[in-house]
Amino acid sequence: MRGLKGSCELQRKRIEIEGIVQGVGFRPFVFQIAQLHGVRGWVCNDSRGVVVEAEAASGPLESFLSDLRGKTPPLAEITRFDVTDCTARGAQRFVIRDSVEGTHRTARITPDTHVCEACLKELFNPADRRYHYPFINCTHCGPRFSIVTGIPYDRVKTTMVDFPMCAACRDEYQDPNSRRFHAQPNACPVCGPQVRLLSAQGQGLPDMDDPVAATIDLLRQGRIVAIKGLGGFHLAVHACHSDAVAELRRRKARDEKPFALMVRDLEAARKLVRIDAAEETLLISTARPIVLLDQIPGHGLSPLVAPHNRSFGVMLPYTPLHHLLLEKFDALVMTSANISDEPIVYRNDDAPRRLCGIADAYLVHDRRIHTRTDDSIVRVLAGRPMMVRRSRGYVPRAVSLSHAQPAVLALGAELKDTLCLTQGDRAFLSQHIGDLKNHEVYRALEQSAAHLEEILATRPAVLAHDLHPDYLSTHYAQQRDELPRMAVQHHHAHLASCLADNGVDAPAIGVIFDGIGLGPEGTIWGGEFLVGDFEDFLRAGHLACLPMPGGDAATREPRRMALSALRHAYGEDIPSLIHDDGFTDQERRLLQQMVARKLNSPLTSSCGRLFDAVAALAGVRQVVSYEGQAALEFEQAVERGDETAAYHFEIQNEGNLLICDPAPLIRQVVEDVRAGRDPAWISLRFHNGLAQVIAEVCCRIRLQTGLGRVALSGGVFQNRILTEKTSGLLEDEGFDVLLHRQVPPNDGGLSLGQAVIAGRRFGKKST
Ligand SMILES: [Zn+2]
Ligand SMILES: [Zn+2]
């Protein structure tokens, strides 16, 4: 009898749920399962997440709780689920209550998401009231992070506050059985945002009843149109129209850096690039990143889309507006609308001024973008996705840390900057901010820091920055002098970033290969073997140092590094090469003297610069027009990856350091060039040689330290051939190999490493 009584008796539970539970249709989901199981009570959003009070007999209540845990909406992600008993009150029905604003804000905001299948169907259904409406969305899709101004996530805390809903939209918004129940960006042609086409001068064009159709006409004619998207403007041109692509390059002053493509659908993409299963999954994921894919010969697009490059950066349409435009094209060039190093343009009033002389017209809309967000870039490597740029579609999703730590705001370094703010055991990286080389990007950093602190309601306890005193990110930390700050060495931050990315909080060998970063004693590092953890590190070895004749100029001119490498391998007696490096005899003499007299020729162990040297020696590239170009083209020179023949480094002991000297390798390259070997041959042997020396040095470090775990980080490990070969060799030797997954191996992931190091050190200091 007791059991029977228990099962009929009303029980009431309070359920507190945290994670990504706002703006993803969570409350209607709760409402619907409450109806299903005959549960009464209420649900509401608060600043931590969602709170439910549910009342029913124990049987239905258990079923309700089980569905609540197990059947969450597609975009939701639960990080805390707490159930407590309370006193039954005899509730009569189940309701959705208004949001309450608390002081503790831990509610997560979702990333911007690709328009869902249900919305797409309506978009192309002539009978639907949102037929061809470019801003169709629902609780499962649409803009989020880019339009949020604060939390809790509600319409008034988004830029949709500008658009009062019409009666029809309000009905959907209030109907728990509608897909648009509490869809904050809900809108329709009657009440919502509208597109407009503006002239090159930014003036409205007369008699424009279909701005999208007019834009399609302009693009077909080979014009350049600036199109406002989700996180900012793109500059668009017809990808088959070589004159248009050439004109875009000329006006943007962008010589060779590849342009991204937006392609109509998978079928159209398969005519341009090879796509494997993992790549397909990425292309059609809700984040809709740019995926780097190998071109198919005879693809038919303008060769100027990606000159000297064997891959294309491809994304599928991700907003309803993109779908409308791409209905009429196989592929459009869609490159971020910015001028050289400035951040992407994202405001209507700014666009005609900043893009003056570049765009022939502007397709704008009146939904404000609150936070500009560039397209993300991903490539598949060793069968899994690797971030190259983590931004739209991923931000502000958190990286889980193995332990809670003090709140740290980490500021990154200089290139590809991102921020990272930690809150408990979660790390939130900002969107891609850019290269911190001018005031505009610095302003973007300030705004992003303020916005992250606002939406997470977290004030940092400590700031983390790079050792380099002249970076603008360091300057920002110094400006906020009310907060303590910690300088973190660049390559140590890379190591920690890779560990945190893999949820590992233990010592490891770090192979950190990148362009350039400041070492502890003022030298320039970039080809490092470290041993360390979140707290500290030691340098166990590095690539031999080469002079960089002319300093920064050597980064722009791989041929300078080639001269430097030749001098390193042959001394005074430099052999003449077959390739024309473009230097006059006098210039070459001058550079050799600079190196000999150690004038403006800082030493670096950078692997990026070694790549440059060998790429130039192999005749692949003498002068670059964008960062990393020589190494990228050298990697792409490899045609067959399965051979194992390799060039050799000499490993020397210098005190406690293992030095990998490329002198024998350089001499082998010269012999092969003389023997008429092609770049494919030279590149493959170089990659093999580098992978082998990494494995060899790691084995020696394991003998000394007993460490069997290797983290591969730094921008060089975006190189697929090197990374796959290196991790293969290391795994054959029995190592546990960690590669980056959630954040990029390049400096875009650096802030995560800075944040965990500063968190650990600061936590120790304050206990
Ligand atoms: Zn939808
Ligand atoms: Zn409406």
Describe this structure in words.
Helices cover 32% and strands 22% of the residues. The strands form 5 sheets. The chain has a 10-stranded mixed sheet, with helices on both faces. With 767 residues, it is α/β, with parallel strands linked by helices. The protein contains 23 helices and 29 strands. Among the domains are: 95 residues, Alpha-Beta Plaits, CATH 3.30.70.100; 183 residues, Alpha-Beta Complex (DHBP synthase); 156 residues, ATPase, nucleotide binding domain (Nucleotidyltransferase, domain 5), CATH 3.30.420.40. One zinc ion binds next to α5. One of its GO terms (molecular function) is zinc ion binding.
What's this model, at a glance?
The protein is 32% helix and 22% strand.
Question: Secondary-structure map with pairings?
Answer:
Layout: H1 2-8, E1 10-20, H2 26-37, E2 40-45, E3 49-57, H3 58-70, E4 77-86, E5 94-96, H4 117-123, H5 167-174, E6 195-199, H6 211-220, E7 225-228, E8 233-238, H7 242-252, E9 260-263, H8 266-270, H9 277-283, E10 290-294, E11 311-315, H10 320-326, E12 331-336, H11 351-354, E13 361-365, E14 377-381, E15 384-389, E16 398-405, E17 408-410, E18 420-429, H12 439-456, E19 462-466, H13 472-479, E20 485-488, H14 490-501, E21 508-518, E22 524-532, E23 537-543, E24 546-547, H15 553-556, H16 558-570, H17 585-596, E25 603-604, H18 607-617, H19 629-636, E26 650-654, E27 657-661, H20 663-674, H21 679-705, E28 709-713, H22 720-732, E29 736-738, H23 750-765
Parallel strand pairs: 2-5, 7-13, 9-11, 10-14, 17-19, 19-20, 21-28, 23-27, 28-29
Antiparallel strand pairs: 1-3, 1-4, 2-3, 6-13, 7-8, 8-12, 9-12, 10-11, 14-15, 16-18, 17-18, 21-22, 22-23, 24-25, 26-27
The site of one zinc ion (ZN) has 8 residues, from helix 4.
